[in-house]
Amino acid sequence: MAFNDDSFIREVNEELRSDQFRGAWKRYGRIVIGLAGLIVIGTAGERAYSYWQSTQASASGDRFLAATDLAKANKPDEALAALDKLEQDGFASYPVLARMRAAALKAEKGDKPGAIADYSAIAKDGAIPAAIQDAAHLRAAWLLADTGTYEQVSAEAEALTATTNPLRHSAREALGVAAYRLGDYKRAKDWFEAIIKDKDTPRNVGRRAEMLLDVITASGKA
Known about the structure:
Layout: H1 5-72, H2 76-89, H3 94-109, H4 112-123, H5 130-147, H6 150-157, H7 168-181, H8 185-197, H9 203-219
Helix pairs in contact: 1-2, 1-3, 2-3, 3-4, 4-5, 5-6, 5-7, 6-7, 7-8, 8-9
């Protein structure tokens, strides 16, 4: 009978590998199965949590839109109640959005002191993203520009006037308008000139600043 050395050696090697595998499986098989189970459970848990997050965010979004619809339907009290509830138990960013929308709704109703207080509280809340804090400062400043002292407006808007702040144009305008309303034309002029000199000032803001600056210049009061 012909004998194939290569074939025989290959079969022996395969048998040895098979024996080694069986030995390794006896020693580590349970560990491998346990790790595989943990991976499966972890993956399933992560997907379940992601789904839960998505579901909760979607539900909060629907509630926010429903509150907004109530406001549009001229039902401010019902809208405020819905927003207050969303602030308490909403998910993701919707509690903060509910606070901002509630403050705006109070202003629309004529409750400017309440709206200013709400915006100021949001602006001072360190748990809220800085961009939203700045937006709250600016909205409070604009409400105060019509009714408050210059110092009150400055307390909300002055920090936003830095050259690196994207809200600087509106903040400067609020300060200029407040100063102009209170008869402080020199200070108003300074703010309007700062607006005009900033090459990144939006066109509509720049035009309003130019118009009021012309009025101040024509009056000879600054």
